[in-house]
Amino acid sequence: MYSKIDKYIDELLEKSKPEAPFWNIESIRHGKAPAWNYIDGCMIIALLELSEIKNEPKYADFAEKFVDYYVFDDGSIRGYNKDKFNLDDVNEGRVLFDLYKKTGKEKYKKAIMLQYSQLEEQPRTSTGNFWHKKIYPDQIWLDGLYMGQVFSLRYQKEFGKKDYSDVVMQFKNVRKLMFDENKKLYYHGCDCTKKAFWADPETGCSKNFWLRAIGWFCISLIDNIGYVDDESAKAELSAIFREAIEGISQYADPETGMYYQVVDKGGKEGNYLETSGSSMIAYAMMKGARLGVLDKKFAQFGKKTFDGICAKYLTIKDDGDLNLGGICLVAGLGPENNRRRDGTYEYYISEPVVENDAKGVAPFVLCYTELLRTIG
């Protein structure tokens, strides 16, 4: 079964060019001009991991050529505008650290400094957390912890003063504001002013537990734990991570090991087992067990989830091509002029379900790299 995955990844790369990646379904559907974005970033992060674990240069070479299309010699970045204060746009910056180490190209370091300058100026909520985007004032989304905090910690480690207190503080605030003690799950978003149309007037939180948001949060934690070199910061992040993983593990589908689009409503009409979030949880479990942060049993839980995804959603079409299905294309909260995105159950199950989008493919590939680290 796993040999099919190598073929699938190679097919994706063969069909992709930097200006038109096959895996970026949103850009294809909306005819967007090529621009720096988190979706491509997720895929390039996964390819660099794959290149390392398989000792296969072709994946890293593809990643470098891809990023070189977007990063210019002066460190400016195609389609990137820091004044949007969009945390999503910081995520792809993670790959710059690895490529700078690999190649020594100064333009990568310049681009790192450009992206970090956004975080230095990023507006913050009253709690001290980054706004998710300029268009979402005073809002914290779980997604943003992945998009901004891994880059922030890596900058501190490699170019800063190794002061991780701000990163830890932002995670601790999310634990305080967005964790449901009864369900043991995290809400998708929180408006610290409690005024957004989707926000609970008492807590400021959104109404439901969206799987991929929780997935982003979990992989942000375990990736940061993997990078951080301060034992106190690692201990605080690890405590939050263990609690989050133990909480969501209760909701795994017994047969497949996968998780539902709306996590705690598995039996409700319209809900479905979703690939991207399930892959993220599986990756976080396997990596957490490997790093000694989680009990070893979670490695097996993660593997069961990964195998369940392969069995349910990795299919061969009539033309012989492989496809990974069951991926929620996108979901969000607002803004004010988009009231369809209201955080209700009906909203989350209404978003398109697609094949081969990097928001599902990238964490699926990351799961595969963790599996390879285990089985060799």
Structure description:
There is one protein chain. With 376 residues, this protein is mainly α. It has one domain: Glycosyltransferase, CATH 1.50.10. It has helices spanning 2-14, 25-30, 38-54, 57-70, 94-103, 106-121, 142-158, 165-178, 211-227, 231-249, 275-290, 297-313, 345-350, 358-375; strands at 139-141, 179-180, 185-186, 189-191, 314-316, 322-324, 327-328, 353-354. Helix 3 (38-54) runs antiparallel to helix 4 (57-70) and helix 9 runs parallel beside helix 11 (275-290). It is globular. The two termini are 15 Å apart.
Supply the number of helical segments.
14
Question: Do you know the CATH architecture?
Answer: Alpha/alpha barrel
The portion of residues assigned to helices is 40-55%
Question: Largest sheet at a glance?
Answer: 2 strands, antiparallel
Based on Cα principal axes, name the global outline: globular
Could you give the topology of this structure?
Blueprint: H1 2-14, H2 25-30, H3 38-54, H4 57-70, H5 94-103, H6 106-121, E1 139-141, H7 142-158, H8 165-178, E2 179-180, E3 185-186, E4 189-191, H9 211-227, H10 231-249, H11 275-290, H12 297-313, E5 314-316, E6 322-324, E7 327-328, H13 345-350, E8 353-354, H14 358-375
Antiparallel strand pairs: 1-4, 2-3, 5-6, 7-8
Helix pairs in contact: 3-4, 3-14, 5-6, 7-8, 7-9, 8-10, 9-10, 9-11, 11-12, 11-14
